[in-house]
Design a protein that fits this description.
homodimer; 5-stranded mixed β-sheet; DNA-binding; 10 helices; about 230 residues; about 20% strand; alpha+beta; 3-stranded antiparallel β-sheet; globular
DNA sequence: CAGCATCCGCTTTGATACTG
DNA sequence: CAGTATCAAAGCGGATGCTG
């Protein structure tokens, strides 16, 4: 990208990370480093391969990304965030929070990768009964299963299958999100194609973290077409 | 911008605010709304006027910006952030914090606008003697003078002249920044072309807010060219 | 197959000129 | 003042080819 040539911290940040695809590459590395070139391509559907190579070079020069030659058994290059790159997390988190309302507009052409949801779930979800027994929720809703573990008020998420899920939700991503954030009842969820197995009531325990969003309610279609 | 077509909160945010110039327009409105079209152009040196018009339309559709017809005496359209647009502040702040180290690379071609520094100074600066007497610092270093007021541990900044500045710093922006953040002594500052008038010692009272940055030290040229 | 580089058609951007 | 119109140049997306 050409520089904005402004003596302004925001502009200078955007000079380095404001290019198309750049922050999504950082997202990928923040969610599952170390990452091979091919992993990155899979996590960035639609990116042109020359552009990915070019961006990785730029990010390396900017001190955001580093490449390593993985040890013999793997014998390939892997990419990671540098500490300076990891410092971008607050910006990614800000984008996740601001973008949550937009997740309720799912377009048919939208690609889905389960790992994109991991950090979002950690940020947005809150356990309203931190003293309750530990539970693990499995979401089978994307290309890979997601596990949410709640234990002593702390939430963690990962890709994989739960050994003994307290409850398992199967179906499309959007209603699943609405369900666990408490925006939809289990009845509504079922109508939208979700199958819930196990202790359904456990889902009531979770809700949207009240600190997660700004004070402004999500814009509705009505806001955009006032009469 | 074309959509990334990803069901991911970060990607969906970037679909709306990831275009070139877009976040800088939001910056302008966050720093000095309401803003006329011409004010925006002045705060965004280098933007093509058709692009500004196009971005403003996009931001309006996205619910981030609103336009108003100013009342008769002014008789022009002005632009503001909507509440939803104001919710972008944490993202702008993140970019400011991450970008601070980059402010110590000032290029000759970099445009300067004093108001770009206002939020950065508020975020980065900390009063180490909150119980001390109120002081006001004037910085004459850009296209307009900046006033920093410190009172009871709270810092505020504005464009304008102080009525009775405790101290006034005149000269280029970069050494001024280094001086008030405590990265440079008054001697060093003088060598870089700064003139300091008034109670010089007051400047010692301020320093970089330790909470302002991530834990990672700024990258140095040495990091980029290892031997 | 992993990790690119090259080529090509298209879209976006930037610079300038022009208008109500 | 607040934009629209025009056009050259740069960037992007997609396909393909090359190298270990």
């Amino acid at each position: 990208m050409r520089s904005y040539d402004e003596y302004c911290a925001i502009a200078k940040s955007l000079d380095l990370i404001g290019d198309r695809w750049t922050l999504l590459i950082v997202r990928e590395l923040s969610l599952r480093a170390p990452c091979r070139y091919t992993d990155l391509r899979n996590g960035l559907p639609g990116i042109a391969t020359n552009l990915l190579a070019s961006r990785l070079r730029d990010l390396e020069r900017a001190g955001v990304v580093m490449r390593e030659d993985a040890p013999p058994p793997i014998a390939t290059t892997v990419f990671r965030l540098t500490p300076r790159g990891a410092d971008l997390q607050p910006i990614l988190d800000g984008l996740i929070r601001w973008g949550l309302p937009l997740m309720f507009e799912q377009h048919p052409q939208d690609a889905i990768r389960s790992h994109w949801m991991l950090r979002a779930l950690e940020l947005m979800l809150c356990d309203r009964d931190p003293a309750g027994p530990p539970v693990s929720i499995e979401l089978d809703t994307g290309d890979q299963p997601i596990v949410i573990n709640a234990r002593e008020g702390r939430l963690s998420t990962r890709i994989g299958r739960a050994e003994q899920p307290t409850v398992t939700v199967t179906g499309p991503m959007k209603p699943t999100l609405a369900l666990i954030l408490g925006f939809a009842s289990t009845d509504t969820a079922a109508k939208e194609g979700l199958a819930i197995k196990g202790e359904t009531d456990v889902l009531q325990r979770f809700a949207l973290n009240p600190h997660a969003l700004g004070a402004t309610p999500p814009p509705t279609p009505a806001d955009q077409a006032p009469t």
